[in-house]
Amino acid sequence: MRLGELMIPGTHNSGAWTGVAPYLSNYVYNQDRNLYEQLVFGQRYFDVRVGISPEDNTFYKKSPKEIIVIDIHKFNVPANFQQAHHEKLLKVLEEKIGKYIIPRMYRGINMHGPKLNTLWKTGKSIIIAYADKETMEKNPPLWPPVRRFWGNKRTEKELLQYIIKVAGTTIPGNPMEVLMAEMTPNLVYILTNPLKSLGYLADLINKNITNWLCDNKLEKKVNIIASDFFLGNSLTELSMEVNDVKLSKMK
């Protein structure tokens, strides 16, 4: 099976689980578990804005065959992120997890990317997708940015319609694509619903997302699917079932 044929569970705004005062947290936190706990609970895709995590590499050492995708898709601080900042970030990545990074393999030969056996033979386990094209192309360890399908919806119905529309869509580039399965409040929503939260919105989606995928026969068409407060859904279990079925058909 190839990388782009797997169903991979992940988290949206993976690092947004701590760091602000409680009275500000309603519309800031997207998760309630740290990165190590997300890994242990089965998440394998991480939606990252530039920052440095204090977590160690225990999980990578204990689980060498678990392929992990770190999608660095925004460079927020400083606002004028320049090449010198990219170089500094790459140096940190090399120092922290360099020996675990799988070098870029996708060259357009197969739209679904390399086979799992090919990835395992590297003896490494982390894919770094990098949103800055110039920096990515100059650095062989970096992969192209993961193609993102983000609905920017504020109701369950709108998000469901969006998921049905885009699930299974393939676009040349990185063999990986992620479906962002969460609602996105805008300023008007936040101001008119100050006592609600991202957790409240996630609960509305999480209790239905697995059924949505299965009822519309989309579960086998999804590559990566990222959610808020991931423990509220069963996407990890669904991913395991879907991948087992796909693997059994290849034998």
Automatic annotation (TrEMBL):
UniProt lineage: Eukaryota, Metazoa, Ecdysozoa, Arthropoda, Hexapoda
Name of the featured protein: Uncharacterized protein
Source organism (scientific name): Cryptolaemus montrouzieri
Database matches in InterPro entries: PI-PLC_domain, PLC-like_Pdiesterase_TIM-brl
Domain of life: Eukaryota
